[in-house]
C-alpha cells in the first residue's frame, strides 16, 4: 500500500533525511467529457476529518470531486473562483458595492440566474450561481467577461478543420464558448489565416484551446492515438515550461495535446504520421512508467492565503521548482478550503523542493497596522503623495485601506512589508499626536450653502484652516459634518461653519415685484447703482431675473432684519421711479423743432433743468413730429406748456378746444389711430390731442394753422355726431397699387365720393400690416353708397389691368 508523509514546517527537518521511494495510488478521471453541472451538495461534499484527509492526501487536488453525479434537477448551482490578480474591481469602499454589484444585478436580470458573492481569505472572489442550466451557463459567461480580467491566445489548426469547430448553424461554437466562458473568433472562409483567437480568463483559454485541438485531432487524416496518463503525472510529461513535450513534438512531428490543469481529463491525444506517432507515444509512456516507479509524495500544510505565492505569476514559481528539482507541486483548487499542498518527485529531490515551497510561501506576507479610519486620508496624503514615498521604495508592497475599518492591510515580500509597516506605524503615531477631529450637527438643508457654488466656500475653509471637512451627500440626509486636521484649525473651522449655519437659520428669502422696465435703471450703467445697494446691505444677496425670462420677480436673500431694510429701501426707489416715469407726447410741427432746441441746445436745456424732466426729440432726418417728455406728472405738464408756447409764438398757430363726450373718443381715434390720423392728414397736418383715457374729460384740443384747425373741428364734430346717431362701418379690399388711382390727383376722386355720399373713407397708412384694407365709416345708407361707388372703380381698374396684361402678351 502507498503511504503519504504529512509534514509541517516544524517537522520538516526530522522527515527530510528519512524519505524512501514509495508509490501512491492516484485517482484518475476516465470520462472524456466534463460531467453535468453538479448540485451544490454534490459539487462540495463535506470534507473528511483531518485524519481521514491525511490518509487520502495522496489523491491530487480536486480528486474529491470524482464523486460528482449527474443531476436530474432543473435547478443547478455552480461555484467558481476569481483569483485576486484576475479581479477587475479590486478597490471598493465596501464589498458588494459599486460597479461590481451593479454588474451582478444586471446579469441576474438578464439571465434569470441567482448570484451570491463572497470574498475568500486570499481576497479572491467566490461566486455561487444558481438557476436553470441555460441561465447558469449564460450568467457564468457574463461574469467571466465582466468581472474577470481578460487575456487572449491563438491556436493554429488546419483551415479545413475550422468548420468542425463552428458546427452546424454555429451550435458547436456557441456551446464551446458557454462551457469555457470565452469568446472564440474564427477567421472568415475568405481569410487564408489558420489562427483561431480565444479571449477570456487564463483558465478558460486553456480549456477552449484543449477542446479546439481535440476537434482538430478528430478531423485529422493522420493517425490519432489516445493515452491514459494519471493527471498527477502530466507535469512530468509536459516538462518545465512545456519544454519536454515541445521537444518530443518537434523531433517526431507529432502534435501532442495534454489537458490543462483546469480540465478534469486524463487522456493525452497524439496526432501525426503513424511511425512518428508511435515514437512519441513510446517516449511518453517511458517517462510515465519511470516517474510512477521512482516518485513518491509528501503532503504539507500551507496557509491558503500563501498558495498564490507558491504558484507565482502565471504559475511561474511552480515551473521554477519543477525545473530546478524535477518535483511537481500540486495546489488545491482556489475554491477548495483545503490547505494541503502535495509534492511529487524523486525522494532525494523532495527535500530541496519542500525548502523552495516554504521559501516561496514565506517570501510574501500579509500584515496590518492599526490606524483610526479618519486618519487614512492623511496617511495617503494629497493625491497619494505620502503613500507614493513608501510604494516607490517598495513597489511590490500592496497597501489597502478599507473605509470604516480602523486598520491598514499590507501585502508583499516579507522584508519589504516589515519596512513599510514600520514607516506607516511611525506616520500613524505622529498623526495621532498632532491631529484632531470633531463632529458637528448642522441641518442637511443648509449643507449645499455651506459648500457654496462649485465648492468655493468649503474649499476656502479647508485651505484657510488646513483641515479636511466631510459633508455627507444629499442622498444620506445626514446632519453630521466631520472636521479633521490640526487641532487649532479644526476648532476655527468648526466655529465658522456653526456661525454660517446660525446665519442661515436666520436667513429669509423675499420676492419683490418690480416692473421689468425698471430693472436696468435699478442696476444702473455698468452695475453702479446695484453695487451701491449691495454695499449698503452687504449681507443681502439680490438676484435679478434674466431679461429673456420676462419676469418681474427680484429675489432678496439674507438675514431677516437686513432683508426687511433692503426691501423698504428698494420699494422707495421703485416708487420714485414710478413717479418720475410719467410720460407725455407733444406733437410739434417739424419746422419748429430747431427753435425749441435753441442755439447750441440752450432752450431745451433750460426747459429740462427748470422743469426737472427728460425731453427726447426725434432725429432730424426722422418724419416724426412727436417730442416725448418724461418725469413727474406736474413737471411734464409744465414742460409741455413751455414747448407749445414757443410753437405758438413762432407761427400763426391757433388752438381750439372742442367738447366731445369721452365715450366717443376711442371710436373717433379708430383702430391703431387710423381714423384720427386720416382727419389730421386731410386737414393740413393739424395736431389733435385727446385727454388721457380714464380722466373723464370731454375736451379735445386741435392745434395748427387757423383755416386747417376750423376744417378739422368741423370734420371732428360731424364725425362725432354720426357716431352718436348711428355709425356704420364696412371694410373692402383693393390691391395697394390701385389706391393712388382711387384717391386721384390731389385726392380729387376720393373727395368726390365723400362729398356725394357723406361717408368717410380711410386708406391704410404705410406702417399698417394689412395694406389691402380700405375702411368706410358713416351712416349706413351713406356707407353703402360709397361702397358701391368704390367697388365699381376697383372693378374698372381690374378690367383695365387685365386688358393691358393681355395686350402685352399678344404683342410679345
Helix content: 40-55%
Distance between the termini: 127 Å
The assigned structural class equals alpha+beta
Q: How confident is the prediction overall: mean pLDDT? A: 81
List the total number of helices.
Answer: 32
Roughly how many Å is the radius of gyration? Answer: 51 Å
Poorly predicted sequence stretches spanning 5 or more consecutive residues: 1-73, 92-96, 805-812
- The counted number of beta strands is 31
- From the spread of the alpha carbons, the general shape counts as elongated
In this structure, how is the largest beta sheet organized?
A: 4 strands, mixed
Query: What is the percentage of strand-forming residues?
Result: 15-25%
What's the assembly state of these chains? single chain
Side-by-side strand order of the widest sheet: 1-11-13-12
Overall structural domain count:
6
GO cellular component, one term: nucleus
Subcellular location: Cytoplasm; Nucleus
GO molecular function: RNA binding
Domain K Homology: 149-217, 221-289, 294-362, 363-429, 434-502, 506-575, 580-648, 652-721, 726-795
Amino acid at each position: 500500500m502507498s503511504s503519504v508523509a504529512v509534514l509541517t514546517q516544524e517537522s520538516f527537518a526530522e522527515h527530510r533525511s528519512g524519505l524512501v521511494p514509495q508509490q501512491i495510488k492516484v485517482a484518475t478521471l476516465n470520462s472524456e467529457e466534463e460531467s453535468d453541472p453538479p448540485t451544490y451538495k454534490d459539487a462540495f461534499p463535506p470534507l473528511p476529518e483531518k485524519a481521514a484527509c491525511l490518509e487520502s492526501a495522496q489523491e491530487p487536488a480536486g480528486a474529491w470531486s470524482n464523486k460528482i453525479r449527474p443531476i436530474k434537477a432543473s435547478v443547478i448551482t455552480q461555484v467558481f473562483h476569481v483569483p485576486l490578480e484576475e479581479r477587475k474591481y479590486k478597490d471598493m469602499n465596501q464589498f458588494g458595492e459599486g460597479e461590481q454589484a451593479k454588474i451582478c444585478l444586471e446579469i441576474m436580470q438578464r439571465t434569470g440566474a441567482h448570484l451570491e458573492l463572497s470574498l475568500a481569505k486570499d481576497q479572491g472572489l467566490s461566486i455561487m450561481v444558481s438557476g436553470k442550466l441555460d441561465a447558469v451557463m449564460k450568467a457564468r459567461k457574463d461574469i467571466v467577461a465582466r468581472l474577470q480580467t481578460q487575456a487572449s491566445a491563438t491556436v493554429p489548426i488546419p483551415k479545413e478543420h475550422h468548420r468542425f469547430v463552428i458546427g452546424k448553424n454555429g451550435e458547436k461554437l456557441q456551446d464551446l464558448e458557454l462551457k469555457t466562458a470565452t469568446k472564440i473568433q474564427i477567421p472568415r472562409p475568405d481569410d487564408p489565416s489558420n489562427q483561431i483567437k480565444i479571449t477570456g480568463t487564463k483558465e478558460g483559454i486553456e480549456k477552449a484551446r484543449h477542446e479546439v485541438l481535440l476537434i482538430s485531432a478528430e478531423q485529422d487524416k493522420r493517425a490519432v492515438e489516445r493515452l491514459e496518463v494519471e493527471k498527477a503525472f502530466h507535469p512530468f510529461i509536459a516538462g518545465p515550461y512545456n519544454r519536454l513535450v515541445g521537444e518530443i513534438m518537434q523531433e517526431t512531428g507529432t502534435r501532442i495535446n495534454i489537458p490543462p490543469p483546469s480540465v478534469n481529463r486524463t487522456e493525452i491525444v497524439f496526432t501525426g504520421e503513424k511511425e512518428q506517432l508511435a515514437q512519441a507515444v513510446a517516449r511518453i509512456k517511458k517517462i510515465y512508467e519511470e516517474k510512477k516507479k521512482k516518485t513518491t509524495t509528501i503532503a504539507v500544510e500551507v496557509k491558503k492565503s500563501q498558495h498564490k505565492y507558491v504558484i507565482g505569476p502565471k504559475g511561474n514559481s511552480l515551473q521554477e521548482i519543477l525545473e530546478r528539482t524535477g518535483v511537481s507541486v500540486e495546489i488545491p483548487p482556489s475554491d477548495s478550503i483545503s490547505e494541503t499542498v502535495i509534492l511529487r518527485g524523486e525522494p532525494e529531490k523532495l527535500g530541496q523542493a519542500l525548502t523552495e515551497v516554504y521559501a516561496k510561501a514565506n517570501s510574501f506576507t500579509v500584515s496590518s497596522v492599526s490606524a483610526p479610519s479618519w486618519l487614512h486620508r492623511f496617511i495617503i496624503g494629497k493625491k497619494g503623495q505620502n503613500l507614493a514615498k513608501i510604494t516607490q521604495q517598495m513597489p511590490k508592497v500592496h497597501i489597502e485601506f478599507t473605509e470604516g475599518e480602523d486598520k491598514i492591510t499590507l501585502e508583499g515580500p516579507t522584508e519589504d512589508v516589515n519596512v513599510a509597516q514600520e514607516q506607516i506605524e511611525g506616520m500613524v503615531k505622529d498623526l495621532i499626536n498632532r491631529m484632531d477631529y470633531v463632529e458637528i450637527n448642522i441641518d442637511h438643508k443648509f449643507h449645499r450653502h455651506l459648500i457654496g457654488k462649485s465648492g468655493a466656500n468649503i474649499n476656502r475653509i479647508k485651505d484657510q484652516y488646513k483641515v479636511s471637512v466631510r459633508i455627507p451627500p444629499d442622498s444620506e440626509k445626514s446632519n453630521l459634518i466631520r472636521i479633521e486636521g490640526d487641532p487649532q484649525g479644526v476648532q476655527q473651522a468648526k466655529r465658522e461653519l456653526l456661525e454660517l449655519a446660525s446665519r442661515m437659520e436666520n436667513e429669509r428669502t423675499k420676492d419683490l415685484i418690480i416692473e421689468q422696465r425698471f430693472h436696468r435703471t435699478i442696476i444702473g450703467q455698468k452695475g453702479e447703482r446695484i453695487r451701491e445697494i449691495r454695499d449698503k446691505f452687504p449681507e443681502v444677496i439680490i438676484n435679478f431675473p434674466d431679461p429673456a425670462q420676462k419676469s418681474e420677480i427680484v429675489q432678496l436673500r439674507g438675514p431677516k432684519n437686513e432683508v426687511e431694510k433692503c426691501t423698504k429701501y428698494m420699494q422707495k426707489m421703485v416708487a420714485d421711479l414710478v413717479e418720475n416715469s410719467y410720460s407725455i407726447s407733444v406733437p410739434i410741427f417739424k419746422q419748429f423743432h430747431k427753435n425749441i432746441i435753441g442755439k447750441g441746445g440752450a432752450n431745451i436745456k433750460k426747459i429740462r433743468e427748470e422743469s426737472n424732466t427728460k425731453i427726447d426729440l426725434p432725429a432730424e432726418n426722422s418724419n416724426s413730429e412727436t417730442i416725448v417728455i418724461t418725469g413727474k406728472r406736474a413737471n411734464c405738464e409744465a414742460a409741455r406748456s413751455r414747448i407749445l408756447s414757443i410753437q405758438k409764438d413762432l407761427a400763426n398757430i391757433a388752438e381750439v378746444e372742442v367738447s366731445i363726450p369721452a365715450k366717443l373718443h376711442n371710436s373717433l381715434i379708430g383702430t391703431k389711430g387710423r381714423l384720427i390720423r386720416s382727419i389730421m392728414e386731410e386737414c393740413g397736418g393739424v395736431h389733435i390731442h385727446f385727454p388721457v383715457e380714464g380722466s373723464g374729460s370731454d375736451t379735445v384740443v386741435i392745434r395748427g394753422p387757423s383755416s386747417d384747425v376750423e376744417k378739422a373741428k368741423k370734420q371732428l364734430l360731424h364725425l362725432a355726431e354720426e357716431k352718436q346717431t348711428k355709425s356704420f362701418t364696412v371694410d373692402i379690399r383693393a390691391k395697394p397699387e390701385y389706391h393712388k388711382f382711387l384717391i386721384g390727383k390731389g385726392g380729387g376722386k376720393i373727395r368726390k365720393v365723400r362729398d356725394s355720399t357723406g361717408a368717410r373713407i380711410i386708406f391704410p397708412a404705410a406702417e399698417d400690416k394689412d395694406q389691402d384694407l380700405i375702411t368706410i365709416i358713416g351712416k349706413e345708407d351713406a356707407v353703402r353708397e360709397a361702397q358701391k361707388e368704390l367697388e365699381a372703380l376697383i372693378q374698372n381698374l381690374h378690367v383695365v389691368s387685365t386688358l393691358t396684361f393681355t395686350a402685352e402678351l399678344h404683342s410679345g
